[in-house]
Amino acid sequence: QVQLVESGGGLVQAGGSLRLSCAASGRTFSNYVMGWFRQAPGKEREFVAAIRWSGGNTYYTDSVKGRFTISRDNAKNTVYLQMDSLKPEDTAVYYCVARETTTYDYNYWGQGTQVTVSS
Fold it and tell me: Which helix (H) or strand (E) holds 23?
């Protein structure tokens, strides 16, 4: 059973930084893509970033390119989302997600962590 546990959310002023962590367990993740989605109040969930566990290829939605960085630590089975130059519109619940490289849908989700950016 895949388990994803997020941490690191909180309240930060605009222009500040936060680092989210996602501890993954229950599998060997070498054939997985790990990522982050977010959902703001009244809006649909949206893709933020992803990383291939093997190889480290990264993908970002346009609105966070140049500000967010996704990375992973193989030894700790942990995925990170470094968020810099935060904006009020980044306020959302952030979810860690995972899927096998052979599928398109992210079928494993964490419980979410709140990120609030004040102006």
Answer: strand 18-25
